[in-house]
Design brief:
Strands 1-2 form a two-stranded antiparallel sheet. By secondary structure, it is mostly helical. A hairpin with a 2-residue loop joins strand 1 and strand 2. Helix content is about 75%, strand content about 0%. The longest helix has about 35 residues.
Length: about 210
């Protein structure tokens, strides 16, 4: 992390760094992209990856340092965070499919080609898929165990910065950082609630 002096400009404490928001967005978008690819792949062929999710972040980080030795940490960090949550997303998709097993079997038989089958299956589980992505985003926003071990130079998410600032005497920025984190989290929480509400209305309509 940068030294404590970075928080002092002209004798005044710096309140917020836009670069932290950019790094957070990079981490978040990378993880959601990987999770999306893994989830869509699971619609065609499920691979039980959930066993990797309970593995402590520190253990994954140490393994990553060994396996990806020499790789830029800016690549390794989002890759390992993505791996952890992609395992969970893959399981969510499988559970959603299992709940509508007969429909998925019908789609498998009558779909013309893999692409059409993928699109038809996705329509059935899109609510669960969107909720899963939003819950993944909420976890990634506050992820620390992996981030604190695989810390690239000049890279800091909002959660990483808050953890760093909390260990120093410059605690003034914590309030604004906390509000930004809560605000982003509230957006994803609102998406989850609206998706669940829309899904419940559809169930009532067709029941």
């Amino acid at each position: 992390f940068p030294s404590h002096d970075i928080w002092m400009i002209g004798g005044n404490t710096e309140i917020f760094q836009i670069s932290d928001l950019v790094d957070t967005a990079y981490m978040l978008m990378t993880c959601l992209a990987v999770c999306s690819v893994v989830s869509l792949t699971a619609l065609l062929r499920y691979v039980p990856l959930t066993v990797f999710y309970p593995v402590p972040g520190i253990v994954l980080s140490i393994l990553a340092l060994k396996v990806f030795s020499g790789w830029p940490l800016e690549v390794v960090l989002p890759l390992m965070v993505s791996l952890r949550y992609a395992c969970l997303m893959s399981n969510n998709v499988h559970v959603a499919q299992t709940g509508q097993k007969k429909l998925h079997e019908i789609l498998t038989v009558f779909s013309k080609g893999r692409l059409q089958m993928l699109m038809n299956k996705f329509r059935l589980i899109r609510s669960a898929y969107l909720i899963g992505l939003c819950m993944t985003a909420l976890d990634v926003l506050r992820e620390l165990p992996i981030s604190m071990v695989l810390t690239p130079m000049d890279f800091s998410t909002i959660a990483m910065r808050m953890n760093y600032v909390a260990k120093t005497e410059a605690v003034q920025p914590l309030g604004l950082y906390g509000l930004v984190l809560i605000g982003i989290g509230a957006v994803f929480s609102l998406i989850i609630m609206r998706t669940e509400h829309a899904h419940s209305k559809c169930q009532v309509r067709y029941s």
